[in-house]
């Protein structure tokens, strides 16, 4: 049952999205819980990244709406949205030679105006964000000189500098090795727990999704196939339907969350 939209930081109602003449998301409705970590999973081309873009007002719906604190996001100004919601795309590109401090400072742009270019609050926010992300010692280094994990922390720090209650992240662990993936996801969990950030992210790794999510949404062919607690969503039946993969689901011996052990692809004739 859908909750009243005014109580939700972000809600999607009967949303259809397209690129050109091709609809890629079909009549999706979602409730995003305040202060939770929601993770979107699904096969390539299922619409999860497209849905995230629409939630950030980067893509106009064909039908339906995205509601930000109960208000239609398309009716809000860019500045209003940027003060309440920050998005980190999958492969962000930084200007050559830009330092960590300069990159993170860009996150304060939505709070600037011709009357107020920089304030004490801006300076305090940057100091706090650099501390929270462990980047104080790297602040004056070029972003290009950082390790993969540090570079992703810098981009996350920029989104945090926007000082929004909602963070949207599209594959924040892309191209990172396992150690850096855990580092970045641990950071996001800490931000959620310490500062109450509402986090919505797309992840490809099912086991990491189940470990870090409060709420999982599994998408298939542009529709929500299943959603709920990781233990309810990550079942052998759902994995087969969404990924075309036979598997066993066991308990992670470290976290107690569901752990997917792949067995093999389902023959093409067995896919619905």
UniProtKB/TrEMBL annotation:
Pfam families for this protein: ABC_tran
Keywords: ATP-binding, Cell membrane, Ion transport, Iron, Iron transport, Membrane, Nucleotide-binding, Transport
InterPro entries, per the entry: AAA+_ATPase, ABC_transporter-like_ATP-bd, ABC_transporter-like_CS, P-loop_NTPase, Siderophore_ABC-ATPase
Annotated GO CC locations: plasma membrane
GO molecular function, one term: ATP binding
Signal peptide: none
A biological-process GO annotation: iron ion transport
Topology within the bilayer: Peripheral membrane protein
Domain of life: Bacteria
Boundaries of every ABC transporter domain copy: 10-246
Compartment list: Cell membrane
Family that this chain belongs to: Belongs to the ABC transporter superfamily.
Protein name: Siderophore achromobactin ABC transporter, ATPase component
Source organism of the structure: Orrella dioscoreae
């Amino acid at each position: 049952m859908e909750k009243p939209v005014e109580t939700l930081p972000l809600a999607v109602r009967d949303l259809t999205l397209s690129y050109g003449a091709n609809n890629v998301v079909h009549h999706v409705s979602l409730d995003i819980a305040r202060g939770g970590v929601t993770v979107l999973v699904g096969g390539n081309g299922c619409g999860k990244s497209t849905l995230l873009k629409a939630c950030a007002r980067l893509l106009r719906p064909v039908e339906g709406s995205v509601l930000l604190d109960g208000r239609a996001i398309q009716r809000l100004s860019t500045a209003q949205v940027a003060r309440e919601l920050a998005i980190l795309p999958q492969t962000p590109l930084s200007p050559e030679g830009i330092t960590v401090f300069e990159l993170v400072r860009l996150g304060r742009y939505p709070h600037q105006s011709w009357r107020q270019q920089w304030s004490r609050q801006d300076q305090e926010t940057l100091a706090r964000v650099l501390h929270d992300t462990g980047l104080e010692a790297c602040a004056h280094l070029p972003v290009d000189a950082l390790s993969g994990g540090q570079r992703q922390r810098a981009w996350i720090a920029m989104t945090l500098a926007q000082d929004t209650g909602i963070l949207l992240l599209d594959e924040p662990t892309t191209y990172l090795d396992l150690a850096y993936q855990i580092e970045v996801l641990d950071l996001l969990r800490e931000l959620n727990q310490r500062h109450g950030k509402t986090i919505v992210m797309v992840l490809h790794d099912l086991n990491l999704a189940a470990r870090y999510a409060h709420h999982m949404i599994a998408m298939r062919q542009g529709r929500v196939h299943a959603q709920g607690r990781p233990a309810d969503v990550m079942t052998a039946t759902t994995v087969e339907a969404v990924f075309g993969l036979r598997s066993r689901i066991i308990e992670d011996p470290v976290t107690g969350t569901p752990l997917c052990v792949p067995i093999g692809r389902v023959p093409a004739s067995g896919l619905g």
